[in-house]
Amino acid sequence: MHEEVAAYALGVLDEEDIEAFERHLDGCESCRRELKEFAEVPGQLDELKHLPSASEDDPPRSMSR
Amino acid sequence: MCPVLSHLDGRFESADAEAEHRIAVLYQEFGGPLLRHIRKSTGNDLQWAEDVVQETIVRAWRNSARLQWEPSLIWAWLLTVARRIVIDGRRRRSVRPHEVEPPEVDMLAVPDGSERALSAIVVAEALRSLSEEHREVIEQTYLRDRTISEAAEILGIPPGTVKSRLYYGIRALREHLRDKGVAG
Questions:
Q1: Distances from the Cα of B83 to the Cαs of A27, A46, B38, B41, B42, in angstroms?
Q2: Separation between Cα atoms, residue B83 and residue B86, nearest integer Å
Q3: In 10 A of CB B156, how many CB atoms?
Q4: Residue B140 contacts residue B154 (beta carbons within 8 Å)
């Protein structure tokens, strides 16, 4: 159950598992601590969505030599 | 002390008045920061972000037991609620975030001290530093708006394995970012 905290924090836990995890959270101090820590992660991963799709590593096909 | 819950008892003539007050306090406490966070994941669509914040606050209000938590935990919980609403909305719209016009640079600035401005490059590096198994589950879940069971099906591994890899992957990602001096 503890490991679900990452999926929960990212909002990707399946709907049917959310309630059980939240009940677990009510009594689990370590999950509460990790939830607070992981709460930053989605915002950090969202930064990736601002990466231009054409990076130096990965030029669009039409531009390849 | 939690301002959300302070001085609520016995001051209201009706349940409606109390509910209204409680929602107003939630907005006041969390509305602005939530909007700033959510705006990033809505591709800077302000109207959509405002709708998400509104729905998040209403769901929070219905769940008064959780509002007994300390504010930092309420905040973390509200973010998870908001993320799910965004993901559901994105699916309905079938809009991929990277197909949205990139936001103005000044919109990416994070004005409050609760979150540091991170460059996408640093996060991309952190992701690349992970093992293939860890990176894969982060990509197949959060970055593609998929739930655990959907990612499990695509990857051909049990949901429990996805959850476990995601947990250790996120921890490794946090450690990498912390080493770079960009996370908690």
A1: 23, 11, 8, 8, 10
A2: 5
A3: 6
A4: yes
Higher pLDDT, B134 or B113: B134
Question: B118-179 domain in CATH 1.10.260.40?
Answer: no
Chains A, B: CB contacts under 8 A, how many? 127
The model's pLDDT over B57-95, given as tens digits with 9 standing for 90+, comes to 998 888 877 777 888 899 999 999 999 998 888 888 765
Mean pLDDT is lowest, of A13-22, B4-13, B97-106, B167-176, for B97-106
Q: Quick one: tokens of B78?
A: 């509200």
Helix (H, G, I), strand (E, B) or coil at A58: strand
Mutate to test the interface with A, among B75, B83, B104, B140 (most CBs of A within 10 A): B83
Residues A10-60: pLDDT tens digits? 999 998 999 899 999 988 999 999 999 999 898 889 888 766 554 444 444
Q: Mark yes or no for CB contact B123/A3 under 8 Å.
A: no
Asked whether this complex has an ipTM greater than 0.90, the answer is no
- Single out the residue of A30, A48, A59, A6 nearest to residue B164, CA to CA: A6
Task: Determine the distance in angstroms separating the CA of A13 from the nearest CA of chain B, rounded to an integer.
Answer: 6
Q: For B15-99, give the CATH class.
A: mainly alpha
